[in-house]
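ARCHIVE ENTRY
Sequence with per-residue tokens
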Amino acid sequence: MSTTILRPARLALPLLAALALGACANMNPTTRNVAGGTAGGAALGGIIGSFTGDAGFGALLGAGAGAAGGYLYDQSQQQQYQNRRPPRRY
């Protein structure tokens, strides 16, 4: 590919990343954990899938596993928070 075609993409990608991160500002913790797990799982699944020749399918499986992992992590954190005892007052 020509560098003339890629030049606008190099300028647009940081802007797109900043807008995407700005959209996460008002998320509740559950949504944030699931979205983070999905993104991480998709990235890792895409890398692992590229070794077998099908990065898209690996990213799809990784996104599903990451979303499930993020949700389970969130539920674990909420349960620990609810099971905390308040400090004793003397």
